[in-house]
Amino acid sequence: MNTILFIIQKEFKQIFRNKGMLPIIFVLPIIQLVILSNAATFEIKNIKFSYIDNDKTSFSRELIQKFDASTYFNVLTDFPSNKLATAAMLNGEVDVILEIPENFERNLVKEQTTDLSVIINAIDGAAAGVENVYINQIIKDFNKNAQTTLVQPSNQINKPVNITSIPSFWYNETLNYKTFMVPGILVLLVTMITLFLSGMNIVREKEIGTLEQINVTPIKKHQFIIGKLFPFWIIGFGLLTIGLIIAKLLFNVPIVGSIFLLYSFTSIYLLVILGIGFFISNFTDTQQQAMFISWFFTVIFILMSGLFTPIESMPVWAQYITEFNPIKYFVEVMRMVMLKGSTFTDIIPQFTKTLAYAIIMNGLAVISYKKST
Amino acid sequence: MKEDTVIIVDNLTKMFGDFTAVNNISFEVKKGEIFGFLGANGAGKTTAMKMLIGISNPTSGNAQVAGFDVYKNPNDIKKNIGYMSQKFALYDDLTVKENITFFGGIYGLTRKKIEEKRCQLVEELGLQEIVNELVGSLPLGWKQKISFSVALLHNPKIVFLDEPTGGVDPITRRQFWEMIYKTAHEGTTIFVTTHYMDEAEYCDRVSIMVNGKIEALNTPKKLKEQFKVENMNEVFLKLARG
Prior knowledge:
The structure holds 2 protein chains of 2 kinds. Chain A is mainly alpha-helical.
């Protein structure tokens, strides 16, 4: 126990003496949280919208007016011909082209039906999907008005029944993406900083030769590993705390659930990450190698965590892979506890899996750490 | 094991794949002896030493260090030896005092004992001025002396020095060897590798390794007689050149 304290004391001294490292540990994550939380949005705004109005009637103008009024669309120009509009699309000047056919108004009045042609730039498929929904929303809205004005005078009995769904979004009523993203990004920074720091720290001792010096001492493996990882465990909590404060003060993210539960889960989760960091350092000889491997896993873990893309929409085999992704569980728990107020019983699956992961990773780290070669 | 024999090496071999770094070496080292372990770069000195200090597993053969078997009780060996590598593995970003505290601590010394040791070291080496300086800012000579003292903190029976005096001026080397003599005189066995043949002359006995084998082992005086030369340098050249 005493030996461990000596190591911890030494580690903290080194961390806080390293003038280059302190900003990395505490300032960069804050910048990351502030920038990413604002930038990583699923909302699509400023869609470059253009139209070809072949009808030029009050109806067609009214429809365009609706797009103009929407905050999502920037109505650019009307193109006189389909050809010019297509050219603009090819040049990337517009995202959406709405073509209003000739006799738009007449057909609507006479037959109460007409077609519109919409062209959407779908290089980014997800964005195109969202745009499509926005466009349909506006057209539906327009439809409703048109029907009321057109249909009502002609025939009272045939008045169409408008069925509108009124969605009610639970846990994030205003669909504020920041509420959704901030807990996730908090996960990222806690993970990245602790993983990189712990992995590189041990490899650094290999590089400068002090690890060899430690290996000739009678120190026990577990003493060394605990002493080495404990400071980063504490730093992980520090990061979480800073992140939660920013989330609350700056982004006004609700923290509905128990803070204690959040910290308890984090304590186990950090063990997983530190175990992985130590494990990686056992198989690498330079900080560069450790950095590359850590980075490789981090990217996969992040992209498959459900943070940016929902896991439900992944192919089944990919969903199985995500079962081995510790970040996934942490993202889930963060969102559940912070936004939904989940209790311990709700997160038992994530809790047990993470605990098992922690035991396995640290077990592997201890086994693979060899004092002699 | 005889009372006064602290290292027994018997047909020790280390292979890396097909390459035999250490080839069937055997020797003994007595208590309080200064044992010089010589050889050209790549001759296998450091590899042999690493097997004795328990950070490299031998491929075959036997060895006992401080009365313990390298296979069965590496941790007991580690409690009884000190080691100073070519890199003087102190922490550059810690002060002299913090380094002493840390290494004392992981050898299991109590804080009180460390304090005592530190005061003693400061006194003996005249560290008053630099005890709170970062090790990284100290001249090489100081690093070596402190490194050596740190290796002796836990009163080891044997101390292994791997090219301890590389890159320093003759005066500092001289001072360093005075420290070695003093330590040996107090009963600690010194196992030292070096490239300086004048240092080889200071050793009680010297072994010379060539291509993983020990080609000669005797006192410097007898070696010179054996090879009919004036100094150790020529002994070394004769052997190393084959």
